[in-house]
């Protein structure tokens, strides 16, 4: 004899949990097994605008849904790891029923006035038309490179890797609502629930016509559906490995729209007078109420420890998510700078753009903020420019949806955009008479820099407006002597020579360079008057 006993308990966070106890009497002493549910983490709103959002789907940290904020249904995506929302479609017609696997999103599209299937590849940014039928195409699902859908009451398959389309059913009955896992496709049929093995090319009846059995979903070797064989809709499961059927729910209310991932099944449940989301853990044999507010929740989907659904608590349909696994770790934020590297002394000589990127693989990123030189914390939304000269300290941190705050990180950015001050004075600026004599020139050099400091300076060039030698028999060579270019030389010799009595000009250049690489060049002139 099998007795089904239900007991209400209270979880750590105040959520009602139904623990299902199976007591099996086989002529032996009664054995009572109680499985305590996991500690739950938190709930978050994925969308908060006043329009309608519905039909969510989830894969890893990406959630997709259909959204009416622009006056028609578009497909949107939210990345939990980055906290970024992306509009996937923007045509003026309606796009419905998104599904996601990996970096590929498929949906039902009406841009050409009839229902077609489109796919968007997140990795390439390319959109692809999958079908071009003139009839009714609906309920797309995707797993790996395989997309399934229903068209004119038959089930079809498209393989992205081969570009091949296959009609799976061609019966006179109605086939609808397909789902796929690896090489196995399930759907509802007027005759019951069927499974098609793509690799084997075989079709198998899973559940027959004795009751209404609809909305089949598959994960690994388990198929779930809603079933009214007891007079109201309950959730059932079939195991391909054992060939056995298990009743998951048995209360007198209605349970709808099951979804399965791993060892967890979620569904919409009406036992409390409104539609709530429930979950059953096959590993622990525990049933858990996920939502408990008085509004209606529907269309659940699950991936790993994350459940998403459509929620009407705010007067319009929003998308919500519940993270089953406890999130005790803060996000991880990294920075990047443009220009990416300073000079060898660690100084920039221009403004610096700073970008922050935060990830959180559990509950997702809630916000990222930064502050400069101990100022007020500022919410980060886009790269910001640092222009203050001197040594700047930039601190940053992120907070996840569970409230965990990352330990503050900091970077130093040193900026010096101002060239150093360079003054040069010569002991003489006129050489006379022009008698071919060498005159000693002594320079007094002073430099300063208010920011990066440690200025280096050097004599970098001495030139003349006349050639060093000429046809004049009195002209002598080597008019510039003793100058050590590119060193801190302050003493050299210039010849008092003026070719053909036209006058000569020597131009002496000193260059100062600060630690940031800013340079200042100063020139002084020495004149040789004509004869």
TrEMBL record:
UniProt superkingdom: Bacteria
Record-linked PANTHER family: PROTEIN TOLB, PROTEIN TOLB HOMOLOG
InterPro entries assigned to the protein according to its UniProt record, in alphabetical order: 6-blade_b-propeller_TolB-like, Beta_prop_Msarc, Ig-like_OmpL47-like
Name listed for the protein in its UniProt record: Beta propeller repeat-containing protein
Residue runs in coiled coils: none
